Amino acid sequence: MDGLSVPSHGLKLLVGSGNPALSAEIASSLGVDQAKATITRFADGEIFVRIDENVRGNDVFILQPTNPPAENIMELLLLIDAAKRASAARITCVMPYYGYSRQDRKDQPRVAIGAKLVANMIVTAGAHRVLGLDFHQHQLQGFFDVPVDHLYAAPVFVSHYRKKNLHDLVVVAPDVGSAKMARGFAKRLNGSLAIIDKRRPKPNQSEVVNVVGEVEGRDCLLTDDMIDTAGTVSEAARALKELGAKDIYVCATHALLSGPAVKRLSEAPITEVTVTDTVWIPEEKRFPQLTVLSVGELLSKAIRYIHSEQSVSSLFEQ
Prior knowledge:
Elements: E1 11-15, H1 20-30, E2 37-41, E3 47-51, E4 59-63, H2 71-85, E5 90-95, H3 114-125, E6 129-133, E7 148-151, H4 154-162, E8 170-173, H5 179-188, E9 192-199, E10 207-212, E11 220-227, H6 231-242, E12 248-255, H7 261-267, E13 272-276, E14 290-293, H8 296-307
Parallel strand pairs: 1-4, 4-5, 5-6, 6-7, 8-9, 8-11, 11-12, 12-13, 13-14
Antiparallel strand pairs: 2-3, 9-10
Helix pairs in contact: 1-8, 2-3
């Protein structure tokens, strides 16, 4: 199976337990029922997966983000393996969030490259193609030995911010690595670009060294692919405010919101934090400045296009 031939039967949407709200929205948007499956655990916590309907010859899309806990990855692998052994014609792994993607290179002695390991496991389990959203680095697509459709949440964010009356907008990259993303937002929102020069003494800690660009008296939009402990964006927001920035907005595709993230974002001089629902956000992690946008329609369109063998590149600019 090369992942390119058209399956003989219809589309099946098989979902894990990682993000039930997004799964339900995608199923509704596609106009299909979620495929019946049993996902339970043995007494010791071991995961058991069984597909409870016929998927032979079908085009199966398995939806499961791979954010912590690690059981999400294991659940995804078992679902892929079950579909393969049930003779699905094509299996597409739909990962709204690619967990372990930050471990994408050997930048220290004797460290694992977790992103490559996860990619190897997904392909070995039996996935014929992968559909993802805002990988931590674009080159992660090359870690998979199967076709990858890499979508961007930027159209969802741009649509949101075009409705706001932002004053003399400057889009701010929180680090040099985010400059390309920020430049794209600046172009689409008719804003200028600024870059924060930051230093990261150790993981999940950062400190602002300098801001390259003019921000005084202007609305600022900080863009990033994810918010984990929020150290980067909260420190960046304070630095921008000290330089005379007006209203400060933050947007990030993946809201991990670990540890002190909610407290930091609540206390930072930020007008609004906008994220998507690629990762399920429990009520206890929600706060007044938080706005959650849905990527359900974007992913459902991509699934529909892949199923009908159409190009998904048109979704980049919608």
